[in-house]
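USER:
Make up one protein:

ASSISTANT:
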Amino acid sequence: MLTKVLISVKTYPTLSTKYNELVCTAGFLEDGSWVRIYPLPFRALERNQQYKKWQWIELDLELNTSDVRPESHKVLNLDSLEVVELLGTEQNWFKRKEVVNRGDVYDDLSVLIEKANKYNKLSLATFKPTRILDFIVEEVDREWNPEKLATLKAKAQQLSLFQTEAEVKKELKLADKLPYKFSYKFEDINGKQSTLMIEDWEIGALYWICLQRCVGDEEKAVQQVKDKYLGFVENCEILLFLGTTKQFHGWASNPFVIIGVFYPQKESQSGLF
C-alpha cells in the first residue's frame, strides 16, 4: 500500500560508507504526524523521481527496524516512488500551514528531550521558539572524511566489475562539503537557551549561491546567509523542524538538530480586525 508524504525536510547530504551519500528526508502524513524516510539516496534517484520540498509524494514504506527512532521508515520499492502535488507559497503559505498545523507544535524543549530520550516517543517535532537570539557561523573541515572516501573508492572499484562507468558515477556522486556550520541560538517558553545546528539542504544551497554571487568571497557569502536567516527572525513567524540524529538519539543531553526552518510572513495586525 502506498503512503502519501508531504516532504518538508531534506537535509544537506552527509557521507555514509554503507549508503554512499545520505539525505535525511522527512515530512508530514495526511493527518499531520511526522515520518522519516531513511535511508534514501536522493541524488541517485531518476530525474522524474526527484521531489522538491513541499511536494506530496507516494511510495511504498515499512517501519525501519534497524533504526530505533519511532518515525523512521524505509522504502520497500524505490520504483514505487511517485511525485504528486507541489504546495506553493500562495496566501502566505496557506496550504503548507494547513498541513503543519494538523500536528503538534511544541514550545518547551525539555518536554521534547524527555520524550526522545526517556520514552522514545518521538525523534521529529515542530517547535516554536519564544525568541531567536542569534545566528552563529563556525568554520569546519572543508573535505569529506578521507577514510570514508577511501571506502567509497574501493566500493567503486568493486562496482566497476558489474556496472558501467556511468552507473558507478551515478551511484557514487557526492555533494560539495560545506566549509561552515550554521546554527540558531534561541529560547524556549521557559527561557531555556539552546544553540542547534541547521542541517537543511536549503541553507547549504543558499551558501553556494551566495558564494557564486560574491565571486568566491567567503566572508561576504557567509554574511549574506546570516542576513537572510536573521531576516526571517524579523519578518516571519518561524517554526523549527527538529530531528534527532541516529548517533545521539536516546542519550545525549540534547539529541536534536534543526532539520528545517518554516518561515511564512508575519500576519499583519490589521488583518485581524
